[in-house]
């Protein structure tokens, strides 16, 4: 059974930093694309970042480029999202997800972790 478990969310002031973690189990982690998404109240879920393989291609939505960094540790089956210079508009529930390389959609999702940025 595949599980993705996020942690590291919380309340932070604008300009602060948080690091989210997502621990995966039940899958061959190194062969999966891993991504982070977020959903703010009243809005659709949106893509934040993804990573195809360790040391490989990463992508970011424009609003987080230069502030967020996605990374992964295949030995620990964990993906991270380092979030710096946080803004109130980054407030959302953050989800990690995984999909097979070449798959169009993400197959597995975590339960989400709340990030709240106060102004």
Q: What global shape is seen?
A: globular
* Gyration radius over CA: 13 Å
Percentage of residues assigned to helices:
under 10%
The run of helices and strands is: EEEEEEEEEEE
Structure description:
It is a single chain. The chain contains no helices and eleven strands. It has strands at residues 3-7, 10-13, 18-25, 32-39, 46-51, 58-60, 68-73, 78-83, 92-100, 108-109, 113-118. A hairpin with a 4-residue loop joins strand 7 (68-73) and strand 8.
Could you write a compact summary of the structure shown?
By secondary structure, the protein is mainly β. It has strands at residues 3-7, 10-13, 18-25, 32-39, 46-51, 58-60, 68-73, 78-83, 92-100, 108-109, 113-118.
Keywords:
four-stranded antiparallel sheet; mainly beta; seven-stranded mixed sheet; 119 residues; single chain
Spell out the blueprint of helices and strands.
Blueprint: E1 3-7, E2 10-13, E3 18-25, E4 32-39, E5 46-51, E6 58-60, E7 68-73, E8 78-83, E9 92-100, E10 108-109, E11 113-118
Parallel strand pairs: 2-11
Antiparallel strand pairs: 1-3, 3-8, 4-5, 4-9, 5-6, 7-8, 9-10, 9-11
């Amino acid at each position: 059974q595949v599980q993705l478990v996020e942690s590291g969310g919380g309340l932070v002031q604008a300009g602060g930093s948080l690091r989210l973690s997502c621990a995966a189990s039940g899958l061959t982690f190194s062969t999966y694309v891993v991504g982070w998404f977020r959903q703010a109240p009243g809005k659709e879920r949106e893509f934040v970042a993804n990573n195809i393989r360790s040391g490989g291609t990463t992508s970011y939505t424009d609003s987080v480029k230069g502030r967020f960094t996605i990374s992964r540790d295949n030995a620990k089956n964990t993906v991270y999202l380092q979030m710096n210079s946080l803004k109130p508009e980054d407030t959302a529930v953050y989800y990690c997800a995984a999909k097979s390389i070449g798959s169009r959609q993400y197959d597995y999702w975590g339960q989400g972790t709340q990030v709240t940025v106060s102004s």
